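can u pls check wat happens w/ S-adenosylmethionine
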Amino acid sequence: MTLNSRSTEIRNLFDRIAPVYDSLNDWLSLAQHRIWKQMTVKWSDPSPGDICLDLCCGSGDIALMLARQVGSAGKVFGVDFSCQQLAIASERTQNYYPPLSVTWVEADALNLPFPNNHFDCATMGYGLRNVTDIPHCLQELHRVLKLGAKAAILDFHRPSNPALRSFQEWYLEKIVVNAAKYLGLTEEYAYIAPSLDQFPIGSKQVELALQAGFATATHYQIASGMMGVLVIAK
Ligand SMILES: C/C(=C\Cc1cc(O)c2ccccc2c1O)CCC[C@H](C)CCC[C@H](C)CCCC(C)C
Ligand SMILES: C[S@@+](CC[C@H](N)C(=O)[O-])C[C@H]1O[C@@H](n2cnc3c(N)ncnc32)[C@H](O)[C@@H]1O
């Protein structure tokens, strides 16, 4: 897999935090991130027997939620370019009986190893903000989805409410970074706040999705506007 230098930096960052990623997310969000992810899965509208894609799957939270929805007749592909995140995801899958129908694929979201019109639904949890070319990522997602298929894309969102925006900034810069400091991961977690500043707001995400060819695009704010889910259909 050939990655540009920025993508390599991001992949290495998520390789480094893989061992503590899940537990820190639970602590730092008071396990609320699992609720936000479950909402995202529901918005992708999976059915039993579907073939689903979880893009930027990381340690597999959302892919495993999808697998429980589609059952043994279905199939979920969790895609990430971080081998250390995928190793955690693969380890977690061993603990399931009956086994979940999930395959972990090490690949670049900007160059997916799947044919056109392949997936019945897709999810992306906190991935779109981290890819280096958002329009290209949306075009790849459009390419691999079947006509009429839905995708739900969860990520941070800057609240419009000034008090909540200040709280989010304070929480990320003080609580999150200080927690990561104890694990020697200050730089990795300090990456989150500035990544939000570069990330398009909901209305711009809708515009980018329509430009990528999606027929419909709606952005829903959740968690008091601190998170958002872009729901798109091909
Ligand atoms: C899974 C979440 C965010 C994605 C994400 C998580 C990370 O650990 C990273 C580490 C390094 C780089 C990037 C990321 C990354 O994109 C959401 C849960 C974890 C958040 C760090 C928690 C932030 C919570 C809200 C800002 C405030 C929550 C208020 C609380 C419920 C009272
Ligand atoms: C914040 S984590 C989210 C992981 C998981 N979806 C979750 O909800 O916890 C972002 C993930 O995106 C992956 N990622 C970022 N850019 C990528 C790309 N171009 N191709 C594949 N994976 C990518 C990272 O390796 C990382 O595992």
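The first strand starts at residue 51 and ends at 55.
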